[in-house]
């Protein structure tokens, strides 16, 4: 009786942070120096984006980009504009596609976001303004919402055909 070799077990999932870095950073103060004489509290508008791309097999770059616009509400004048992109290189191997998608859309942005919050706050202070304290973000909820929208759009496209 010959023994058959056991099927090779699938390797355990692997997740490593290779590098975290500020990829892009800018501060614009279009009304300086007069804007510093204003005493009104600005209205803060926040735009957030995430992006993931493969760098090589099992290695991904994930970016979280935020645009913070502070405007004087009554004058519709921009006090300052901060654009910051925090990125990281992550090694992710031996994961099913659905789990990989979740890691890149939820776990990695959750790792990057605290660094991005610090960069934005520090840059506002260095620009002569009060710190901008960005609220925590639930990347899991955003991911689920995007998936639901994609499914709804796919369903609507099928109905049209």
Could you walk me through the main structural features you see in this protein, from its secondary elements to its overall organization?
With 161 residues, this protein is α+β, with helices and mostly antiparallel strands. The chain has one domain (16-155): Bacterial Protein-export protein SecB. The protein has 2 helices and 4 strands; from the N terminus they run ββββαα. The chain has helices spanning 97-126, 139-160, and strands at 14-28, 43-56, 59-72, 77-93. It has a 4-stranded antiparallel sheet. Strand 3 (59-72) and strand 4 (77-93) form a beta hairpin. The radius of gyration is 22 Å and the shape is globular. The N and C termini lie far apart (59 Å).
SSE blueprint:
Elements: E1 14-28, E2 43-56, E3 59-72, E4 77-93, H1 97-126, H2 139-160
Antiparallel strand pairs: 1-4, 2-3, 3-4
